[in-house]
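Cross-posting from the chemistry board since nobody answered there.

I work mostly on the small-molecule side, so proteins are not my area. We synthesized S-adenosylmethionine and want a rough idea of how it might sit in this target. Sequence and SMILES are below. Is it possible to get a predicted 3D structure of the two together?
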Amino acid sequence: MRTKIINHIEDLIPPKKMLSHKDAKAYHDSALHNIATIEKHVSVSEDASILDVGCAAGRLALPFIGRLKGNYEGFDIKENLIEWATNNITTRYPNFRFTYFSVKNSVMNRSGIVDGNEFVFPFLDGSFDLIIFHSIFTHLMPDVAKRYLAESSRVLKDTGFLYITFYVWDRETESCVASNDTRWTFPHQMGECRVHDPNRPEDAVSFHRDWIYEQALKNGLGVRNFVQGAWRNARNHAQDYYIFRKHVS
Ligand SMILES: C[S@@+](CC[C@H](N)C(=O)[O-])C[C@H]1O[C@@H](n2cnc3c(N)ncnc32)[C@H](O)[C@@H]1O
């Protein structure tokens, strides 16, 4: 799919107080970079159906605007961001939809109503060509992460791709974070994951490589690509990522 340059990108970028990046340019550039990274591995056709879980204000929708004729569905647990995206993106591009769900997260949505480990993605089986989790499994506790993997496998087409970023834990990671000046060191084992701060576990969560493979297998998913990010070697935000595909029998 070819990128079409649009002239009014600034209208699709939330105000500074809502921005997850230092300014609008950094926000947009990072989105272009993240989607280009996915497209190194996945060919996204113009009629694709895309699900962006934990979409915030639609940062990762931006690179698809003007070229995606299929549907983009994003959902998040932060109501103000979803409202902003709906009012500013969906009104201009109705095939880009954003939905708020009141799912609990002890750091990001304490007053949520639904437990993440019981949440059912409100989409039919086999609906999506590409499912994106960018910097989401790094904020989920294991029971929620398991549920989200199972739901992703259910709503992914047999031919689809699932992109998930992680802080992957293994021996190499352990020695890297011990010897480098990294932002996260995950010193605490908490059940099936490691966390940076046990008082605010969902601030930053790391899963062991074996756990990720085991959960993928349980959900009929196989690893197609794995790429290590720079986070374990320096003060860098780049997380590790996997691209999964369904094992089709
Ligand atoms: C670090 S931000 C990443 C936002 C977006 N994916 C991006 O890359 O710009 C993490 C997002 O995950 C959302 N989130 C946390 N727990 C969630 C859950 N259980 N279900 C859906 N979204 C969740 C947060 O509200 C937040 O917007």
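Reply from a structural biologist on the board:
Welcome over. Reading the output above for you: The mean pLDDT is 94. The pocket of S-adenosylmethionine is lined by residues 20, 53-56, 59-60, 76-78, 103, 105, 108, 116, 134-136, 139-140, 144 (CB under 6 Å). Happy to explain the token format if needed.
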